Amino acid sequence: MESKRNVEDRILDAALVCVESFGVRRTTLTDVARRAEVSRPTVYRRWPDVTALVADLLTRELRRILLAQETSDAAGPDGETVRARLVRHAAGVARALLAHPLFTRIVDTEPELLATYTFHRLGTSHRAALDLVEPVVADGQRDGSVRAGDPAVLARFVLVSVQGTVTSRRLFADLLDEDALVGELATLLDGYLSGAAD
C-alpha cells in the first residue's frame, strides 16, 4: 500500500502539470485525479477544491526552493558575513521563483490568486520562509553584519521585498533582464540590512 505522503506528492505533482498546462481556472480536481492515477474521492478527501490544492502546491514548491537555496553553496566564499549569505540566498530564491513555471504562470495569467497573500495576510509558505530568515537575521546581528532592529521586522521586510520583486517583474521588463533585476534586489537588501557603520 502506498504511503499517504507518496499519494499526496503524486497528486501535487499532477496538479503542477495541470496548472502549468491549463492554468488554475481550467484545472479541475477530476483532471488532477486522472493525471495522478487516483480516484476523485482520494483527492477530495485531502482538498475540498482546486484553490486549496494550489495553495498547498505553492507552499510545497516554495519550500523546495527555500531548501535548495539553504543547501546549495551553503558555505559561500571564505569570510562571507551572515548578511552577505542572507542576501545571496534571498537573491537565489528570487531567481528561482522568476524561473519557476508555476509561479510565472500564476503571476502572468492569474495574479488575483496571490492577492490575499500580497495584501491581506501571510500564508503557510510565508511563515515557512520567515522561520528560516528570522534566525539568520539574528545571527547577522550577533556577527555585526546586520543592523540592529527586531529580527521579525527585518525578516518580514526581506520576504516582502523578494515577493514584490518577483510579482512585479513585468514592471521592469523594459529596463532590466531578470539577472539585473535580481542584482538590484540584492543591492536593496544589502543596503537595508547593513549596519550604520557600513
For the report, how would you describe the main beta sheet? Answer: none
Strand proportion: under 5%
Number of strands: 0
Percent helix, as a range, is: over 70%
In CATH, the topology of the largest domain is named Tetracycline Repressor, domain 2
Sequence of secondary-structure elements: HHHHHHHHHH
The overall average pLDDT, rounded, is: 90
Task: Give the CATH level 1 class of the largest domain.
Answer: Mainly Alpha
Tell me the CATH architecture of the largest domain: Orthogonal Bundle
Number of domains: 2
Q: Can you tell me the overall shape?
A: elongated
- As residue ranges, the low-confidence spans are none
Count, helices: 10
Structural class: mainly alpha
| Computed CA radius of gyration, to the nearest angstrom | 19 Å
CATH homologous superfamily of the largest domain - what is it? Tetracycline Repressor, domain 2
Distance between the termini: 58 Å
Task: Outline the structure in words.
This protein is an all-alpha fold and 198 residues long. It has two domains: 1-48, Arc Repressor Mutant, subunit A (Orthogonal Bundle), CATH 1.10.10.60; 60-193, Tetracycline Repressor, domain 2 (Orthogonal Bundle). It is built from ten helices and no strands. It has helices at residues 4-22, 29-36, 40-46, 50-71, 82-99, 101-109, 115-120, 124-143, 151-167, 178-193. Helix 1 packs across helix 2, helix 1 packs across helix 4 and helix 8 packs across helix 9 (151-167). The longest helix is centred in the first third of the chain and has 22 residues, at 50-71.
